[in-house]
Each structure stands twice: as C-alpha cells, then as structure tokens.
Amino acid sequence: MREGCKDHSEPIREWARSRQLGAFPRRDMADVRVDQLLVRLGHPEVYVHQGNCEHLFTFSDVRLLNPTDPLRLSVYPFHTAISQNQTIYCTTCAEFGAKWIVTGCSRVPFDPAFFCETCFKLYLYKDGKKICDFKAYCYRGNEINLLKPNS
C-alpha cells in the first residue's frame, strides 16, 4: 500500500472474521497478477480505491487457449463485455453516487433530480423535517423502488 493511504478493507475483513466467514487476504495490487487470484466464476467482485470509488467486475469464463486466441500475454485479460450501467452522480455535489430521486421540488431546477445521502439531508431537510414539498424515491442504480415514496 502506498504511503499515506488507508486500508479501507480492514473493517470488512474484521466483520468477516468475527462471523467466521473465512480469510480475506489483502495484497498490494502492484505485486499481484491475474493468474495469482482465486477466481470465482459468475461471482461479482469489487475493486475499491480512494475510499469511495468502486469498480464491479465478474469473471465469466476461464478456459484453455484455442488456435484463434492471441499468444501475446499483453492482451490478457481481455473484456468480453462491458456493462452499460454507469454511476449517476448527485446533481448537487457531483461527487457521490445518487441514492435518492427527487421529483416535484421547487428548490431544484431539475425534475427529476438525483441526490447523494448527504446532499439529500442537508438541502431538503432541517432538523429532520422536510423544508418544502417533494417526493423522494430510494435509488439503487437500475433498480428503482417506485412503490414506496418517501413523502
């Protein structure tokens, strides 16, 4: 790990240890090659850096070379598909991923507007009470809960 960086995986590894879920070793990515990883096919993995930037990826296929495969190691691993899902950022701070969709709000120039948790609470609430009329929906990427607005 680079000097001055924080190990963001420690609380997760401690949580897993306390529940006897097994060992989750941490290694410096500069010292690890893909062929040294323990791969679980079809299982989503996450690479986290800078504390809040997450990259989801899945190993979907492992096989032996066939005659049409390139022989240069520099082309591996190669993508077979790249997800079209992109993070939608908060329209207020543009720093964090959206957690809320807000509609019908007179304080916001966009309808709908996307908010991170912090901006949602700081901009639309005071002392835990709404400061204007709006509807808010929990936002989870492509999965949206439209049945239960947070009025």
From TrEMBL:
<dbReference type="GO" id="GO:0001006">
    <property type="term" value="F:RNA polymerase III type 3 promoter sequence-specific DNA binding"/>
</dbReference>
<keyword id="KW-0805">Transcription regulation</keyword>
<protein>
    <recommendedName>
        <fullName>snRNA-activating protein complex subunit 3</fullName>
    </recommendedName>
</protein>
<dbReference type="GO" id="GO:0001046">
    <property type="term" value="F:core promoter sequence-specific DNA binding"/>
</dbReference>
<comment type="subunit">
    <text>Part of the SNAPc complex composed of 5 subunits: SNAPC1, SNAPC2, SNAPC3, SNAPC4 and SNAPC5. SNAPC3 interacts with SNAPC1.</text>
</comment>
<dbReference type="GO" id="GO:0042796">
    <property type="term" value="P:snRNA transcription by RNA polymerase III"/>
</dbReference>
<dbReference type="GO" id="GO:0000978">
    <property type="term" value="F:RNA polymerase II cis-regulatory region sequence-specific DNA binding"/>
</dbReference>
<dbReference type="GO" id="GO:0003681">
    <property type="term" value="F:bent DNA binding"/>
</dbReference>
<dbReference type="Pfam" id="PF12251">
    <property type="entry name" value="SNAPC3"/>
</dbReference>
<keyword id="KW-0804">Transcription</keyword>
<keyword id="KW-0539">Nucleus</keyword>
<dbReference type="GO" id="GO:0005634">
    <property type="term" value="C:nucleus"/>
</dbReference>
<comment type="function">
    <text>Part of the SNAPc complex required for the transcription of both RNA polymerase II and III small-nuclear RNA genes. Binds to the proximal sequence element (PSE), a non-TATA-box basal promoter element common to these 2 types of genes. Recruits TBP and BRF2 to the U6 snRNA TATA box.</text>
</comment>
<dbReference type="InterPro" id="IPR022042">
    <property type="entry name" value="snRNA-activating_su3"/>
</dbReference>
<dbReference type="GO" id="GO:0019185">
    <property type="term" value="C:snRNA-activating protein complex"/>
</dbReference>
<dbReference type="GO" id="GO:0042795">
    <property type="term" value="P:snRNA transcription by RNA polymerase II"/>
</dbReference>
<comment type="similarity">
    <text>Belongs to the SNAPC3/SRD2 family.</text>
</comment>
<keyword id="KW-0238">DNA-binding</keyword>
